[in-house]
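Whiteboard transcription, Tuesday session. T.W. wrote the C-alpha coordinates on the left side:
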Protein backbone atom coordinates (compact mmCIF):
# COMPACT_ATOMS: atom_id res chain seq x y z
CA UNK A 1 0.00 0.00 0.00
CA UNK A 2 2.89 2.32 0.65
CA UNK A 3 4.08 1.64 -2.83
CA UNK A 4 0.70 2.48 -4.21
CA UNK A 5 0.67 5.77 -2.30
CA UNK A 6 4.05 6.63 -3.70
CA UNK A 7 2.79 5.87 -7.18
CA UNK A 8 -0.25 8.10 -6.68
CA UNK A 9 1.90 10.86 -5.32
CA UNK A 10 4.26 10.36 -8.12
CA UNK A 11 1.35 10.36 -10.42
CA UNK A 12 -0.08 13.57 -8.99
CA UNK A 13 3.31 15.23 -9.18
CA UNK A 14 3.78 14.15 -12.75
CA UNK A 15 3.75 17.29 -14.89
CA UNK A 16 2.06 15.37 -17.68
CA UNK A 17 -0.77 14.39 -15.39
CA UNK A 18 -3.89 16.37 -16.45
CA UNK A 19 -4.88 16.64 -12.82
CA UNK A 20 -1.55 18.17 -11.91
CA UNK A 21 -2.10 21.79 -10.91
CA UNK A 22 1.11 22.76 -12.68
CA UNK A 23 0.14 21.09 -15.93
CA UNK A 24 -0.46 23.85 -18.51
CA UNK A 25 -3.39 21.88 -19.92
CA UNK A 26 -5.12 21.69 -16.57
CA UNK A 27 -8.17 24.02 -16.65
CA UNK A 28 -7.53 24.89 -13.01
CA UNK A 29 -3.97 25.99 -13.75
CA UNK A 30 -3.86 29.80 -13.36
CA UNK A 31 -1.34 29.90 -16.24
CA UNK A 32 -3.68 28.04 -18.63
CA UNK A 33 -4.82 30.52 -21.32
CA UNK A 34 -8.27 28.94 -21.29
CA UNK A 35 -8.66 29.45 -17.54
CA UNK A 36 -11.27 32.19 -16.98
CA UNK A 37 -9.22 33.45 -14.05
CA UNK A 38 -6.08 33.81 -16.16
CA UNK A 39 -5.38 37.53 -16.60
CA UNK A 40 -4.25 36.78 -20.19
CA UNK A 41 -7.50 35.03 -21.13
CA UNK A 42 -9.36 37.19 -23.70
CA UNK A 43 -12.66 36.27 -21.99
CA UNK A 44 -11.43 37.47 -18.59
CA UNK A 45 -13.23 40.74 -17.76
CA UNK A 46 -10.08 41.90 -15.92
CA UNK A 47 -7.93 41.46 -19.04
CA UNK A 48 -7.03 44.98 -20.25
CA UNK A 49 -6.41 43.64 -23.76
CA UNK A 50 -9.86 42.08 -24.01
CA UNK A 51 -11.50 43.42 -27.27
CA UNK A 52 -14.71 45.39 -26.91
CA UNK A 53 -17.78 44.51 -29.05
CA UNK A 54 -16.94 47.34 -31.49
CA UNK A 55 -13.18 46.95 -31.33
CA UNK A 56 -11.82 47.01 -34.90
CA UNK A 57 -8.97 44.74 -33.79
CA UNK A 58 -11.42 42.00 -32.81
CA UNK A 59 -10.37 38.93 -34.88
CA UNK A 60 -13.99 37.82 -35.21
CA UNK A 61 -14.99 41.20 -36.53
CA UNK A 62 -12.01 41.30 -38.88
CA UNK A 63 -12.86 37.84 -40.19
CA UNK A 64 -16.56 38.79 -40.86
CA UNK A 65 -15.78 42.26 -42.26
CA UNK A 66 -17.90 43.92 -39.56
CA UNK A 67 -15.10 46.11 -38.22
CA UNK A 68 -15.55 48.64 -41.09
CA UNK A 69 -16.70 52.17 -40.21
CA UNK A 70 -20.02 53.66 -41.32
CA UNK A 71 -18.38 55.68 -44.11
CA UNK A 72 -16.51 52.62 -45.36
CA UNK A 73 -19.66 50.55 -45.49
CA UNK A 74 -21.87 53.15 -47.23
CA UNK A 75 -19.35 54.89 -49.49
CA UNK A 76 -21.81 54.88 -52.40
CA UNK A 77 -24.34 56.86 -50.36
CA UNK A 78 -21.75 59.56 -49.67
CA UNK A 79 -20.93 59.67 -53.40
CA UNK A 80 -24.60 60.25 -54.32
CA UNK A 81 -24.93 63.03 -51.73
CA UNK A 82 -21.79 64.68 -53.12
CA UNK A 83 -23.15 64.61 -56.68
CA UNK A 84 -26.47 66.12 -55.54
CA UNK A 85 -24.62 68.90 -53.76
CA UNK A 86 -22.54 69.69 -56.87
CA UNK A 87 -25.65 69.84 -59.08
CA UNK A 88 -27.45 72.10 -56.58
CA UNK A 89 -24.49 74.51 -56.44
CA UNK A 90 -24.28 74.62 -60.26
CA UNK A 91 -28.04 75.34 -60.51
CA UNK A 92 -27.75 78.20 -58.00
CA UNK A 93 -24.82 79.67 -59.93
CA UNK A 94 -26.79 79.58 -63.21
CA UNK A 95 -29.80 81.31 -61.63
CA UNK A 96 -27.65 84.06 -60.13
CA UNK A 97 -25.82 84.65 -63.42
CA UNK A 98 -29.10 84.86 -65.36
CA UNK A 99 -30.57 87.39 -62.96
CA UNK A 100 -27.46 89.54 -63.14
CA UNK A 101 -27.53 89.44 -66.93
CA UNK A 102 -31.19 90.51 -67.02
CA UNK A 103 -30.54 93.34 -64.57
CA UNK A 104 -27.77 94.78 -66.69
CA UNK A 105 -28.85 97.72 -68.84
CA UNK A 106 -28.54 97.41 -72.61
CA UNK A 107 -25.79 99.59 -74.14
CA UNK A 108 -27.08 103.03 -75.11
CA UNK A 109 -26.84 103.68 -78.87
CA UNK A 110 -24.69 106.68 -79.79
CA UNK A 111 -26.55 109.91 -80.38
CA UNK A 112 -27.23 110.67 -84.02
CA UNK A 113 -25.24 113.56 -85.42
CA UNK A 114 -27.38 116.52 -86.53
CA UNK A 115 -27.80 117.13 -90.23
CA UNK A 116 -25.50 119.72 -91.77
CA UNK A 117 -26.80 123.27 -91.66
CA UNK A 118 -27.69 124.71 -95.09
CA UNK A 119 -25.60 127.61 -96.29
CA UNK A 120 -28.62 129.92 -96.60
CA UNK A 121 -31.24 129.92 -93.85
CA UNK A 122 -34.64 131.75 -93.70
CA UNK A 123 -34.91 135.09 -91.95
CA UNK A 124 -36.92 133.88 -88.95
CA UNK A 125 -37.53 130.69 -87.05
CA UNK A 126 -41.01 130.25 -88.59
CA UNK A 127 -39.60 130.81 -92.05
CA UNK A 128 -36.88 128.25 -91.26
CA UNK A 129 -39.56 125.66 -90.46
CA UNK A 130 -41.41 126.44 -93.71
CA UNK A 131 -38.18 126.09 -95.66
CA UNK A 132 -37.52 122.71 -94.09
CA UNK A 133 -41.04 121.63 -95.04
CA UNK A 134 -40.44 122.80 -98.59
CA UNK A 135 -37.23 120.75 -98.73
CA UNK A 136 -39.13 117.69 -97.57
CA UNK A 137 -41.86 118.34 -100.17
CA UNK A 138 -39.29 118.14 -102.96
CA UNK A 139 -38.84 114.46 -102.27
CA UNK A 140 -41.17 112.17 -104.34
CA UNK A 141 -44.20 111.07 -102.38
CA UNK A 142 -44.66 107.33 -102.00
CA UNK A 143 -47.96 105.68 -102.75
CA UNK A 144 -50.11 104.90 -99.77
CA UNK A 145 -49.94 101.30 -98.69
CA UNK A 146 -53.10 100.26 -96.87
CA UNK A 147 -52.88 98.41 -93.63
CA UNK A 148 -49.09 98.88 -93.41
CA UNK A 149 -47.84 98.82 -89.88
CA UNK A 150 -45.82 101.82 -88.78
CA UNK A 151 -42.29 101.08 -87.59
CA UNK A 152 -41.86 101.08 -83.87
CA UNK A 153 -40.40 104.35 -82.57
CA UNK A 154 -36.76 104.21 -81.70
CA UNK A 155 -35.94 104.36 -78.06
CA UNK A 156 -34.60 107.68 -76.91
CA UNK A 157 -31.08 107.58 -75.58
CA UNK A 158 -30.97 107.26 -71.87
CA UNK A 159 -27.41 108.51 -71.49
CA UNK A 160 -27.44 111.96 -69.92
CA UNK A 161 -24.27 112.98 -71.70
CA UNK A 162 -25.69 112.03 -75.12
CA UNK A 163 -28.92 113.94 -74.42
CA UNK A 164 -26.96 117.02 -73.41
CA UNK A 165 -24.85 116.85 -76.57
CA UNK A 166 -27.98 116.53 -78.73
CA UNK A 167 -29.58 119.56 -77.08
CA UNK A 168 -26.41 121.53 -77.58
CA UNK A 169 -26.30 120.61 -81.27
CA UNK A 170 -29.94 121.66 -81.72
CA UNK A 171 -29.32 124.97 -79.98
CA UNK A 172 -26.23 125.61 -82.14
CA UNK A 173 -28.15 124.80 -85.31
CA UNK A 174 -30.98 127.15 -84.28
CA UNK A 175 -28.51 129.94 -83.60
CA UNK A 176 -26.84 129.47 -86.98
CA UNK A 177 -30.23 129.53 -88.74
CA UNK A 178 -31.22 132.75 -86.97
CA UNK A 179 -27.88 134.31 -87.89
CA UNK A 180 -28.26 133.25 -91.53
CA UNK A 181 -31.85 134.57 -91.59
CA UNK A 182 -30.68 137.95 -90.45
CA UNK A 183 -28.31 138.08 -93.44
CA UNK A 184 -31.09 137.41 -96.04
CA UNK A 185 -32.66 140.24 -98.04
CA UNK A 186 -36.45 140.85 -97.98
CA UNK A 187 -36.67 139.64 -101.60
CA UNK A 188 -35.06 136.33 -100.71
CA UNK A 189 -37.35 135.98 -97.68
CA UNK A 190 -40.42 136.63 -99.83
CA UNK A 191 -39.22 134.17 -102.44
CA UNK A 192 -38.67 131.48 -99.82
CA UNK A 193 -42.09 132.12 -98.33
CA UNK A 194 -43.72 131.92 -101.78
CA UNK A 195 -41.94 128.66 -102.54
CA UNK A 196 -42.97 127.19 -99.18
CA UNK A 197 -46.59 128.26 -99.75
CA UNK A 198 -46.59 126.74 -103.23
CA UNK A 199 -45.18 123.48 -101.91
CA UNK A 200 -47.75 123.46 -99.15
CA UNK A 201 -50.60 123.94 -101.63
CA UNK A 202 -49.20 121.27 -103.92
CA UNK A 203 -48.91 118.84 -101.04
CA UNK A 204 -52.50 119.61 -99.97
CA UNK A 205 -53.73 119.11 -103.55
CA UNK A 206 -51.98 115.75 -103.82
CA UNK A 207 -53.41 114.62 -100.49
CA UNK A 208 -56.90 115.70 -101.59
CA UNK A 209 -56.54 113.87 -104.92
CA UNK A 210 -55.40 110.74 -103.12
CA UNK A 211 -58.36 110.90 -100.74
CA UNK A 212 -60.78 111.41 -103.61
CA UNK A 213 -59.27 108.51 -105.56
CA UNK A 214 -59.51 106.23 -102.54
CA UNK A 215 -63.09 107.30 -101.90
CA UNK A 216 -64.02 106.68 -105.55
CA UNK A 217 -62.37 103.26 -105.43
CA UNK A 218 -64.24 102.41 -102.22
CA UNK A 219 -67.56 103.50 -103.73
CA UNK A 220 -66.87 101.49 -106.87
CA UNK A 221 -66.13 98.40 -104.80
CA UNK A 222 -69.32 98.94 -102.80
CA UNK A 223 -71.32 99.34 -106.01
CA UNK A 224 -69.82 96.16 -107.46
CA UNK A 225 -70.59 94.27 -104.25
CA UNK A 226 -74.16 95.60 -104.26
CA UNK A 227 -74.58 94.61 -107.92
CA UNK A 228 -73.26 91.13 -107.21
CA UNK A 229 -75.61 90.79 -104.23
CA UNK A 230 -78.55 92.01 -106.33
CA UNK A 231 -77.68 89.55 -109.10
CA UNK A 232 -77.42 86.71 -106.61
CA UNK A 233 -80.76 87.70 -105.07
CA UNK A 234 -82.33 87.87 -108.54
CA UNK A 235 -81.00 84.44 -109.46
CA UNK A 236 -82.24 83.04 -106.17
CA UNK A 237 -85.68 84.58 -106.71
CA UNK A 238 -85.73 83.18 -110.24
CA UNK A 239 -84.85 79.71 -109.03
CA UNK A 240 -87.46 79.93 -106.31
CA UNK A 241 -90.06 81.07 -108.85
CA UNK A 242 -89.12 78.21 -111.17
CA UNK A 243 -89.33 75.72 -108.33
CA UNK A 244 -92.70 77.12 -107.31
CA UNK A 245 -93.94 76.97 -110.90
CA UNK A 246 -92.78 73.37 -111.24
CA UNK A 247 -94.43 72.54 -107.97
CA UNK A 248 -97.70 74.09 -109.13
CA UNK A 249 -97.38 72.35 -112.49
CA UNK A 250 -96.85 69.00 -110.79
CA UNK A 251 -99.81 69.66 -108.54
CA UNK A 252 -101.97 70.62 -111.53
CA UNK A 253 -100.86 67.52 -113.41
CA UNK A 254 -101.57 65.35 -110.41
CA UNK A 255 -105.02 66.90 -110.04
CA UNK A 256 -105.74 66.51 -113.74
CA UNK A 257 -104.51 62.92 -113.61
CA UNK A 258 -106.78 62.16 -110.66
CA UNK A 259 -109.76 63.69 -112.44
CA UNK A 260 -108.90 61.91 -115.68
CA UNK A 261 -108.42 58.64 -113.82
CA UNK A 262 -111.83 59.06 -112.20
CA UNK A 263 -113.42 59.79 -115.58
CA UNK A 264 -111.65 56.83 -117.16
CA UNK A 265 -112.68 54.60 -114.28
CA UNK A 266 -116.29 55.59 -114.79
CA UNK A 267 -116.08 54.85 -118.53
CA UNK A 268 -113.90 51.76 -118.18
CA UNK A 269 -115.02 48.61 -120.08
CA UNK A 270 -113.65 45.21 -121.13
CA UNK A 271 -113.65 45.89 -124.87
CA UNK A 272 -113.31 49.17 -126.74
CA UNK A 273 -112.80 50.37 -130.28
CA UNK A 274 -110.73 53.33 -131.43
CA UNK A 275 -113.75 55.37 -132.57
CA UNK A 276 -115.51 54.81 -129.24
CA UNK A 277 -112.46 55.74 -127.21
CA UNK A 278 -112.20 59.11 -128.95
CA UNK A 279 -115.66 60.07 -127.67
CA UNK A 280 -115.38 58.77 -124.11
CA UNK A 281 -112.16 60.54 -123.02
CA UNK A 282 -110.81 64.01 -123.85
CA UNK A 283 -107.31 64.51 -125.24
CA UNK A 284 -106.22 66.53 -122.17
CA UNK A 285 -107.35 63.73 -119.87
CA UNK A 286 -105.50 61.13 -121.94
CA UNK A 287 -102.29 63.22 -121.87
CA UNK A 288 -102.54 63.60 -118.08
CA UNK A 289 -102.82 59.82 -117.65
CA UNK A 290 -99.57 59.02 -119.48
CA UNK A 291 -96.92 57.88 -116.98
CA UNK A 292 -93.23 58.62 -117.59
CA UNK A 293 -90.03 56.81 -116.61
CA UNK A 294 -86.43 58.04 -116.75
CA UNK A 295 -85.24 55.29 -119.10
CA UNK A 296 -83.78 57.02 -122.20
CA UNK A 297 -85.13 56.46 -125.72
CA UNK A 298 -82.98 55.38 -128.64
CA UNK A 299 -84.19 56.77 -132.03
CA UNK A 300 -81.71 54.77 -134.09
CA UNK A 301 -84.35 52.47 -135.62
CA UNK A 302 -88.08 53.28 -135.21
CA UNK A 303 -90.99 50.89 -135.54
CA UNK A 304 -94.82 51.09 -135.22
CA UNK A 305 -97.26 48.73 -133.56
CA UNK A 306 -101.07 48.97 -133.52
CA UNK A 307 -103.33 48.34 -130.56
CA UNK A 308 -105.15 45.41 -132.18
CA UNK A 309 -101.80 43.56 -132.55
CA UNK A 310 -101.18 43.91 -128.81
CA UNK A 311 -104.61 42.46 -128.13
CA UNK A 312 -103.74 39.52 -130.38
CA UNK A 313 -100.32 38.53 -128.97
CA UNK A 314 -100.64 39.42 -125.25
CA UNK A 315 -102.91 38.16 -122.50
CA UNK A 316 -104.85 40.09 -119.89
CA UNK A 317 -102.60 41.73 -117.21
CA UNK A 318 -99.29 41.35 -119.11
CA UNK A 319 -96.69 44.05 -119.78
CA UNK A 320 -95.88 44.99 -123.37
CA UNK A 321 -92.30 46.01 -124.20
CA UNK A 322 -90.23 46.23 -127.37
CA UNK A 323 -88.28 43.09 -126.48
CA UNK A 324 -91.47 41.11 -125.84
CA UNK A 325 -92.87 42.21 -129.21
CA UNK A 326 -89.67 41.10 -130.95
CA UNK A 327 -90.02 37.71 -129.26
CA UNK A 328 -93.76 37.11 -129.86
CA UNK A 329 -94.74 38.84 -133.07
CA UNK A 330 -93.54 37.05 -136.22
CA UNK A 331 -91.49 39.09 -138.69
CA UNK A 332 -91.22 41.95 -136.19
CA UNK A 333 -88.14 44.10 -136.83
CA UNK A 334 -85.43 42.74 -134.55
CA UNK A 335 -83.24 45.82 -135.15
CA UNK A 336 -85.85 48.27 -133.85
CA UNK A 337 -84.84 50.52 -130.92
CA UNK A 338 -87.78 52.98 -130.79
CA UNK A 339 -91.43 51.91 -130.40
CA UNK A 340 -94.55 53.89 -131.43
CA UNK A 341 -98.03 52.71 -130.42
CA UNK A 342 -101.00 53.78 -132.58
CA UNK A 343 -104.77 53.23 -132.26
CA UNK A 344 -106.45 50.77 -134.58
CA UNK A 345 -109.16 48.13 -134.30
CA UNK A 346 -110.29 47.05 -130.85
CA UNK A 347 -108.66 46.21 -127.52
CA UNK A 348 -110.12 43.64 -125.13
CA UNK A 349 -107.16 43.16 -122.78
CA UNK A 350 -105.99 45.03 -119.67
CA UNK A 351 -102.35 45.73 -120.57
CA UNK A 352 -99.43 47.80 -119.30
CA UNK A 353 -97.68 49.18 -122.37
CA UNK A 354 -94.12 50.60 -122.21
CA UNK A 355 -93.17 52.52 -125.38
CA UNK A 356 -91.29 55.58 -126.59
CA UNK A 357 -94.35 57.28 -128.14
CA UNK A 358 -98.15 56.98 -127.93
CA UNK A 359 -100.94 58.48 -129.94
CA UNK A 360 -103.65 59.98 -127.71
CA UNK A 361 -106.27 57.60 -129.14
CA UNK A 362 -104.04 54.63 -128.29
CA UNK A 363 -103.66 55.94 -124.74
CA UNK A 364 -107.44 56.27 -124.43
CA UNK A 365 -107.96 52.64 -125.53
CA UNK A 366 -105.32 51.38 -123.04
CA UNK A 367 -106.70 53.47 -120.14
CA UNK A 368 -110.39 52.70 -120.79
CA UNK A 369 -109.67 48.96 -120.60
CA UNK A 370 -107.96 49.41 -117.18
CA UNK A 371 -104.36 49.41 -118.40
CA UNK A 372 -101.42 51.84 -118.11
CA UNK A 373 -99.49 53.75 -120.75
CA UNK A 374 -95.86 54.29 -119.74
CA UNK A 375 -93.63 56.51 -121.88
CA UNK A 376 -89.85 56.43 -121.79
CA UNK A 377 -87.85 59.67 -121.69
CA UNK A 378 -85.92 61.26 -124.57
CA UNK A 379 -82.26 60.39 -125.10
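and on the right, the sequence the group agreed on:
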Amino acid sequence: SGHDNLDIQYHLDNPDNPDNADNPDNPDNPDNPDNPDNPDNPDNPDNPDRPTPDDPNDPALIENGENKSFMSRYWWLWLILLLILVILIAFIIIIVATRRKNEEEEPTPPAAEPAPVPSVAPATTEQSIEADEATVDEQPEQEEQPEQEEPAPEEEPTDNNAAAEAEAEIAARKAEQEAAAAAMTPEEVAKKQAEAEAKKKERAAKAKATREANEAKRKAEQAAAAAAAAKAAEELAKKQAEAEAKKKERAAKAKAAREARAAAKAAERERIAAEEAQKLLADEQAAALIQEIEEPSDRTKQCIVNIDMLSKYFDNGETVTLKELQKRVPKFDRRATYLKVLARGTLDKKLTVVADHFSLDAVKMIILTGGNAIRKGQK
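Someone added at the bottom: The first helix runs from residue 2 to 13.
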